[in-house]
Amino acid sequence: MSSDTRRLLIPAAAILLAFIISLTWLLMATKPASPPEKTPVLVKPEPKPDWCGKLVQHMPKVSKEMCEGIGLQPTGTLSVKGFPILARDYVSDGKRKVPLRILLIGGIHGDEPTSAAIVFHWLQNMHLPIAHSIQWKVAPVVNPDGLFVTPQTRVNANGVDLNRNFYSPNWERDAPKYWQQRTKNDPRRYPGKTPLSEPESRWVHDTIESFKPHVVISVHAPLGEVDFDGPHDVPPRRFGRLMYNRIGVYPGSLGNYGVDHRQMPVITIELENARQMPTEEEGRRIWRDMLIWISRNISAKS
Ligand SMILES: [Zn+2]
Question: Are 259 and 230 in contact (CB under 8 A)?
């Protein structure tokens, strides 16, 4: 290479290099800015509330596995102290054109823990054909606040007997009068200031309005008998060892409301003991006898 050529090439190379550098700079400058790196937000899954863990501490002979296996769901209604009213729906097997709809509730009185526990046991047998043809809504613990306190209370956290807090004819006159005169202001039987003043009784009432059960089964203890409030007079003779006995109608009771306001039969099961469960065999017998009686005597008209 001659010195002349070299003299020409060096500035040309310098110009080219400067051009490349400028171009690169220009390209970098016009390149859209990459979005700022997102800091990953760690969303912790909400821990599932341990409702069963709490419930089983207050009931005899119901394990956490048994409770969880049922798959209870929150209904959207909370007790006075904020525990959800839990329920489970069971669809019928579809063999009947209009399946029988049954609302089954336990534990409306918190100091009758067997009345809640037996419902958990019955729900282990929902696969049996006689239960399977029915459309169920089941709430085993309607008064969780009364169940959770020590000592357990019949009434809810507002001191209201939920089973005196339903509509009944002349409630405003009769319920307070009955409470004052007949129960001598027994705090365990306080009916509340107005019917349906409590979230728990309202839930039962609203569920009856929307679900329209053909029969309601409400479980109690410890009278050891079965009662039936119905628009037609066909009481059951016995379920297991529990013999039929007319317990009576009280202002604001669920039986009173069901019959007088809805022409809807209410079966009241009174287990023999509020704290000690019936034997497995006896529990099954009550369940089976009750379902056989219902299937023979209650018709699903609509
Ligand atoms: Zn009761």
Answer: yes
* Type of residue found at 234: V
Q: What is the mean pLDDT of residues 22-41?
A: 56
225 Rama sector, left if φ>0, alpha if ψ -120 to 50, beta otherwise: beta
User: Cα(221) to centroid of ligand 1, in Å?
Assistant: 6
- Tell me the CA–centroid distance for residue 11 and ligand 1, in Å: 105
Distance CA 240, CA 289 (A): 7
What pLDDT does 97 receive? 85
For residue 290, the CA-to-ligand 1 centroid distance in Å is 19
Predicted pLDDT of residue 194: 97
Cα of 93 from ligand 1 centre, angstroms:
32
Ligand 1 centroid–CA 109 distance in Å is 5
- In tens, the pLDDT along 229-277 reads 887 667 999 999 999 998 877 899 998 888 777 789 999 999 999 999 9
The pLDDT of 58-87, averaged and rounded, is 98
Alpha carbon 140 to its chain's center: 7
Farthest-apart Cα atoms in the chain, separation: 130
In the reported structure, the alpha carbon of residue 100 is separated from the centroid of ligand 1 by a whole-number distance in angstroms of 25
- Structure confidence at residue 93 (pLDDT): 87
- How far is it, in rounded angstroms, from Cα 185 to Cα 191? 10
Distance 32 CA to ligand 1 centre (A): 73
Mean of all residue pLDDT scores within the chain: 89
In degrees and rounded to multiples of 5, residue 4 shows phi and psi of -65, -45
> Which SS3 state, helix, strand or coil, does residue 53 take?
helix
C-alpha–C-alpha distance, residues 187 and 176, integer Å:
12
Average pLDDT rounded to a whole number, residues 172-194: 96
Pair of tokens at residue 130: 């006689």
Mean pLDDT, to the nearest integer, of 291-301? 89
CA of 112 to the centre of ligand 1 (A): 6
